[in-house]
Amino acid sequence: MEMRNVFIVGRGLSGRVCLGTKCRSRPTFGLGQVSRAFSTTQTTWASGFAESQSKKAPAHKVEADTEKFRTHSVQDLLSLKGRVTVVTGGARGIGLALARGTAELGSDVAVLDILEKPSDAFLDFQKDLGVRAKYYRTSVTNPATLSQTFEQVIADFGRIDNCVTAAGIAVDKPFLETTAEEGMKVLDVNVMGTYLSAQLAAKQMQAQNSGGSIVMVASVAARAALPSQHLSIYGASKGAVKGLCRQLSVELSPSNIRVNTISPGYISTEMTNRLAATNPTLLSVFNSAAPLQRIGDRADLKTVVAYLCSDAAAYTTGTDILVTGGLHAGRL
Predict the structure, then answer these.
(1) 181 and 174 Cβ atoms separated by less than 8 Å
(2) Looking at the annotation, which residues are catalytic?
(3) 33 inside domain
(4) Looking at the domain assignment, is residue 2 inside a domain?
(5) DSSP for 265-319?
(6) Residue ranges of the chain with pLDDT lower than 50?
(7) What's the total number of domains in the chain?
(8) Is 186 part of any domain?
């Protein structure tokens, strides 16, 4: 964008008028003259901005419909029938619940994970919900392998409409004791794994010219230190995920691809249950830290993600939804 005839006008301590970086003695501008100069600058900038924007062909057009709130029911807006959702880290834990949430709204589901096989609950998708579901063993940290997996998903399902990046790992260890290898592994899975998965999904969505939704799993640990845990590198990785979301939400908006994050607090999963069994003190923290005085359930997350994948969230992008039981707000 070209900017022309832009001057910074100000009065020095000696009463001189400063233009740009050069100052010389001359009669002081009157208020009206300064206002006209500023107005000219605004007009020039606005004209240049409008010209640059006009060169961008909009990827989609939205017609004003003041009656849409009456003609589009909540049920219709939330429906994911006919869509395909990719979920990384969906073999178990939070990822599995998020995959089921989209399947319950009618989406076909492709679940990606590094585990040899998914949880038995994954088999319920087709049997109980009547949607297509397939498991792909892959690694989100291997670009070549991950790319091949996405190609296979497209071959099997024909398209990708939503991508939920739930693959992630954590290291609960004091900062001064965390090794470089441990830190790099967390960053590789949580940051680059998210980056690569979102990139592959967005490329397919753009090729389809259909728009889409990318939902990244961040964490309340990106916002605050959590009681009784040492999550320095984990919190840093999830902060990066939130930053990535903001960047992509703007960059991908011309293709009508929405990007959002969710930030869970303490959530009950098989992993947290095993951890609590070996550390009863930590279990007490899980159940008492949040103002709502309980640990979260995966059911508290799946509806939020399903909403973000649906047309009900068609005007929601670049945001982070905190699901923490109030933990992010503070503690008494």
Answers:
(1) no
(2) 219, 234, 238
(3) no
(4) no
(5) -SEE-HHHHHHHHH-HHHHHHHHHSSTT-S-EETHHHHHHHHHHHSGGGTT--S-
(6) 1-29, 31, 34-35, 37-46, 49-50, 52, 54-58
(7) 1
(8) yes
